[in-house]
Write a structure and sequence with these properties.
- The chain is mostly helical and about 130 residues long.
- The protein has one domain.
- About 70% of the residues lie in helices and about 0% in strands.
- The protein is built from five helices and no strands.
- The N and C termini lie close together (about 10 Å).
- The relative contact order is 0.16.
Length: about 130
């Protein structure tokens, strides 16, 4: 195995780990927002039921989109578009929190956006979904 193949395989494993982390995070958040919004600890949830439902649906789609197309090898470029969607979602969420005076709470949003940037970059470059033999 050449050095380039090892690097590609290592990068692919790292990308899958990050994609899994993003998927679990967004899928879980989406389920909570849709089915148990009253249990969420966020102050913006109360009185914004439509926004909670909308963000829950978007979270679910992001969680599914970041993994399923690549996993099933059906339109794997959709994984890149899902990563872009997560980046946009995290930017919008950060702006939302800043507008409410909750700027101290955007660290998580920034972290998730950076993970999504890495996935978009990694899947768009030489890293493949399955390493070539």
């Amino acid at each position: 195995m050449t050095r380039e193949q090892k690097t590609s395989k290592t990068m692919n494993v790292i990308l899958w780990i990050i994609q899994g982390l993003l998927a679990v995070t967004f899928f879980g958040a989406g389920l909570m927002k849709i089915f148990k919004p009253e249990e969420l600890p966020f102050p913006w949830v109360k009185g914004n039921t439509n926004l909670v439902l909308l963000t829950g649906i978007v979270d679910l789609l992001g969680g599914l989109g970041i993994t399923l197309p690549a996993l099933f090898r059906i339109q794997p470029k959709l994984t890149i578009f899902a990563a872009y969607g997560i980046i946009v979602l995290m930017i919008v969420a950060s702006v939302f929190h800043i507008s409410r005076g909750e700027a101290k709470d955007i660290g998580f949003n920034i972290f998730m956006a950076l993970l999504a940037v890495f996935v978009a970059w990694g899947r768009k470059t030489k890293a493949t979904i399955t390493p070539k033999k």
